[in-house]
């Protein structure tokens, strides 16, 4: 080890990083097992990450300098092709993990494949009959042979409001065909991932028209391109949506259908059946046809974990070696030792652990509901309502969780970037690209604001059910539980029961208040829709608080279930930090509901400060536990060894090798300007008369 | 006018936009005069905007598809060159406006020129003697002939903490020269705008070393490149910082100095003088040497206005023609008619008006202080302390305002993007690029977090001065004023005195509380630095609330001073909305300080709702008043005529003309993959023994 004296700003960081790592009070590997859901999963992830790292197609050091859209798309497709090679050799779970990891290297490639595999695949599996699913699998859907699927939902003029879509699918009984048509330019299918370059087929959301009657939006499979030549099929017009804010690897396009004919059998008929005579049968499950979107939401909570952990690892490692100012005179202080820097980043780290616990919970629920739906006999009068209830609950929980976690992740990327100062703005540290790639998660597959409003409506509905004496279960069960103490009243914050109780009480109070207001409005004669509209701000708030409660609870419960003698303490520290900080963040609500006093709020802030100091000691352990290899970080300042300046200097100079001091446009632009002649100041003289 | 029946999703928008515009209750032009500070300024802006729009160098419809860094830089330089042609023909104010408008077209080009004109220029003017300033102007600094300046402040290992910079400037008395040197790699000058491609000279922040004694950081002019050949000067090493998150038009580079010799006269000596014998004279004004940074901060508040108004115009116009869902059944509702959508965007619009009032206020103060400093006799024992006090106050006010407004603008761009749903993610609507270009404003020239902490410290210091019976003035004068009512207690919210009083009371309470805590810590024996460190969260909060108060106050006062019979009403509506909404945003503090009760908070929220409904009616008028021509918006969905879908469809298709359905990598990548052979499943047989 180098002696302290020989260290300077440039050489000190790796030495300090090793020292910080050595002082960790726990074994980070055990926290990794906790986060991953067991050692087995960690080992699987390790293996898959190594496979990616060694594969030349995934070499990513040059990724930040790829700016050309076509080049991004080509690289993304190569990566997708490589991934698909494993579809038949991996077991299902391994393949799922492999897909998720692709998102950690190239979000554009991941989205492009997820649209085929998850969304198109989910549509034919979820909305198609088993026979229809088999048919498209045989056509090459799963193995991606002579076939690439896409999903044509949104239109230029309609996004979130699916029931307003304008594309039509009119049954022609004589031909036993549907005619798919785009009635006006605003009905052009827009943002269709895969359409611009790749897709041979697409699942189209269109209005089912039979005998002049509009049966609402159903799903139809339409072939876009000739499989052999990749030429467009008759009646299909496709254009390129072009440059986006991020995810250039996904080839989004627009599609117009001009009287395109498809066999009647191309309508996906699990939940709605049309026979050759034009009889339309819709069992009560029709609303489940949108189920294809659920997988995406659930996956985005998981993605929020993966992406948040990455940028927290970078910013916290950097904070641990970067020094600035001298808080007490003498040697400059590490950023991480500033109380304010701790407060900016460490709660976000705790939140990231909380996100994982919640993402796992929602995924388990999703797997359960999906299995139930796939195995459901749609004529079973008893099973169907139960399935609908469970699916609805999942819709509502996943809506709040998707919105909360994707926003949290966007905020985390942004905060971490700012915490790295100017170096956060370098492309080579990864923040810029990640933010631009990430934020569409807050909009697609359910705009976050709309999801929160809709989840808020569901919370009020559940509460009205409680008031009507109906049983409710799942994450809203506390609404029916006997109310606990309406005040914190000096109870022990460090008792998870107290903390969870606090959140339940405040969330319940808020939902009760909103339900009361709803009932007043209803009595005034407003329609249900109008009353909910009036209460949008309140609904939004209900979702925000309820979801935060859900996350606090899941974190504590997961520790109770899976924590060990080695991990319980460091994890509980984080859970407490997360729960206390969340109260501080929502102090306005806690004060308003009279749950805490200003004095107690001050006490909570002081306890947060104590937790921060404790957590700070192990900050390298906690971030190492995220288990993100340098290759996946792909960030010059985030390296595990802490040799930040050396690595960053090297990366910048490798990507920008020494060049002529005269840039390419020197002779043509710079020199002529710097050496321009003085303006001609002679003017024609006129004799004034 | 088209009949209602012939309108569909595609054709309705322009008709609706015209209808909305017609219903405006005021003359938007009069609000423009208010915002611009008078008709004269508006006419000047109109003229300059037209000149930009007509000049081919500024044609911007292709800007979003430029991805190549070198191409961005070349275009940026062409634009700068064009701007500079006006430097001698424009009067100073016109040129300033012209510069600001460049930032509305190309933030990268603007930054690159601002570094030369504002920062380098500001350094030689502010830190150089009048003779030194004249010398560099004669060399071509102002006209940019055979000369391009830059500013070498930050190093790889040091940013915000200027006193920790490691580059040295050692006086060699024998040669009457300074030797500029980079002692280790972490001391490499980093992020130097203009260094990579353009700069011939630079102002270097380096430690003045005379006879082995370190006199701290001063400014030295160093030549980087030979003027004739653009080759690097001896001892100068320059590299390219490469790709950034945004602002690719600025050519940031790194610089290492290896024993580079400069004449002693190249030290900028207004505030610190070194003679040929090595005598160092530092009048009390030494701290003013950082004054060059002030102009940047003040300009960024103005920039925040320019940029916020642009994206609010886009998002609010879009919200006025976009329909989704049917709140009351029947025709779909416009986004702007959803209470939640109003709440998301309209307060940000009001805030943007408030930002302008505050930016003007701070700029006036800046002009005053700058003039005072430039005309100051540094030996005047009476004038100097007064000047220092005024400059300090400006430092602190501008710190809070810079942080608050640049964050507000980043948030506004982001919220506006999300409010446009998926179309917000298209490059052609401008949000992505603007966000990436913008956010560095929150970091450079004083990291926002550090600025807030430092402004918070100044607030506590002012308050301690008040307690010590010293007079204070300016924006903190209310700290010394007699306390008003400690509670809202049912007074009239619509009386600006009440609203301003509310903010003053809460801000004063917060600063008092923090000052109390400071004194407790000091009594416990903590050093001043340690005590402030402990109180960082509180300091941050003090700045946040004090700055918000300042903005609320400036808005009301400007209306009182400059509002007319035609504009007072619509402006007051916005000011009320901004003030009330700000209380709601900071409800936690207002409740904690006991200024309002939960019941009053509910009332305030209800009043916000009322204001929103009023403001909504005139939303097109309020955004038209921002007076941003379509050319400057450069956003397919933001057009004034509201013909959103047609325009957007056209722009996307112009930028991405119809192409072969087979993308360039079809034959090489896609086809071989889709048509790959099944894996060879035959395996060599081994006879098991």
TrEMBL record, chains A, B:
Binding site for FAD: 154, 193
SUPFAM superfamilies per the UniProt record, alphabetical: Acyl-CoA dehydrogenase C-terminal domain-like, Acyl-CoA dehydrogenase NM domain-like
Gene source species: Yarrowia lipolytica (strain CLIB 122 / E 150) (Yeast)
Subcellular location: Peroxisome
Residues annotated as domain Acyl-CoA oxidase C-alpha1: 290-460
GO cellular component, one term: peroxisome
GO terms of biological process kind: fatty acid beta-oxidation using acyl-CoA oxidase
Name assigned to this protein: Acyl-coenzyme A oxidase
């Amino acid at each position: 080890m180098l002696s302290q004296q020989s260290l300077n700003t440039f050489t000190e960081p790796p030495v300090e990083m090793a020292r910080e790592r050595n002082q960790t009070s726990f074994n980070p590997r055990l926290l990794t097992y906790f986060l991953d859901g067991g050692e087995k999963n960690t080992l699987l992830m390790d293996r898959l990450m190594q496979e990616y790292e060694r594969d030349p197609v995934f070499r990513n050091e040059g990724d930040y300098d790829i700016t050309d859209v076509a080049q991004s798309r080509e690289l993304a497709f190569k990566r997708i092709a490589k991934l698909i090679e494993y579809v038949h050799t991996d077991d299902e779970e391994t393949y799922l993990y492999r897909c998720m990891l692709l998102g950690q290297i190239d979000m554009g490639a991941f989205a492009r494949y997820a649209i085929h595999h998850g969304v198109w695949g989910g549509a034919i599996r979820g909305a198609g009959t088993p026979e229809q699913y088999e048919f498209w699998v045989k056509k090459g859907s799963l193995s991606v042979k002579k076939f690439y699927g896409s999903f044509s939902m949104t239109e230029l003029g309609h996004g979130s409001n699916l029931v307003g879509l304008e594309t039509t699918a009119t049954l022609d009984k004589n031909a036993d065909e549907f005619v798919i048509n785009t009635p006006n330019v605003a009905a052009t299918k827009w943002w269709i991932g895969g359409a611009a370059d790749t897709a041979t087929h697409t699942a189209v959301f269109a209005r089912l028209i039979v005998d002049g009657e509009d049966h609402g939006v159903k799903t139809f499979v339409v072939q876009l391109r000739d499989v052999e030549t990749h030429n467009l099929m008759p009646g299909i017009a496709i254009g390129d949506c072009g440059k986006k804010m991020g995810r250039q690897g996904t080839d989004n396009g627009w599609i117009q259908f001009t009287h395109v004919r498809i066999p009647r059998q191309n309508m996906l008929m699990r939940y709605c059946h049309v026979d050759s005579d034009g009889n339309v049968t819709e069992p009560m499950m029709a609303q489940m046809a949108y189920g294809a979107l659920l997988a995406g939401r659930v996956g985005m909570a998981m993605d929020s974990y993966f992406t948040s952990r990455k940028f927290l690892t970078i910013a916290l490692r950097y904070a641990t070696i970067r020094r600035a100012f001298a808080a007490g005179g003498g040697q400059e202080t590490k950023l991480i030792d500033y109380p304010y820097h701790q407060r900016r980043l460490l709660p976000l780290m705790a939140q990231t652990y909380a996100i994982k616990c919640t993402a796992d919970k929602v995924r388990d629920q999703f797997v359960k509901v999906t299995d139930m739906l796939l195995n459901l006999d749609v004529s079973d009068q008893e099973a169907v309502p139960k399935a609908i209830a469970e699916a609805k609950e999942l819709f509502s929980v996943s809506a709040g969780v998707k919105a909360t976690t994707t926003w949290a992740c966007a905020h985390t990327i942004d905060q971490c970037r700012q915490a790295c100062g100017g170096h956060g703005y370098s492309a080579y540290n990864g923040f810029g690209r990640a933010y631009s790639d990430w934020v569409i998660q807050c909009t697609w597959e359910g705009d976050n604001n709309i999801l929160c409003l809709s989840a808020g409506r569901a919370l009020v509905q559940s509460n009205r059910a409680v008031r009507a004496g109906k049983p409710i279960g799942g994450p809203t069960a506390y609404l029916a539980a006997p109310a606990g103490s309406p005040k914190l009243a000096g109870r022990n914050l460090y008792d998870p029961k107290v903390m969870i109780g606090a959140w339940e009480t405040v969330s319940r109070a808020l939902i009760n208040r909103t339900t009361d207001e709803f009932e007043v409005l209803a009595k005034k004669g407003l329609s249900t829709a109008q009353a909910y509209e009036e209460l949008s701000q309140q609904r939004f708030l209900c979702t925000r608080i309820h979801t935060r409660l859900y996350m606090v609870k899941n974190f504590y419960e997961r520790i109770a279930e899976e924590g060990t003698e080695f991990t319980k303490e460091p994890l509980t520290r984080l859970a407490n930090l997360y729960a206390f900080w969340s109260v501080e963040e929502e102090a306005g609500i806690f004060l308003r509901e009279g749950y805490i006093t200003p004095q107690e709020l001050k006490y909570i802030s002081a306890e947060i400060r104590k937790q921060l100091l404790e957590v700070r000691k192990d900050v390298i352990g906690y971030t190492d536990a995220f288990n993100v290899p340098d290759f996946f970080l792909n960030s010059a300042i985030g390296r595990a060894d802490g040799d930040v300046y050396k690595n960053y200097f090297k990366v910048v100079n490798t990507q920008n090798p020494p060049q002529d001091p005269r840039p390419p446009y020197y002779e043509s632009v710079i020199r002529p300007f710097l050496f321009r002649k003085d303006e001609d100041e002679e003017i024609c003289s006129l004799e004034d008369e």
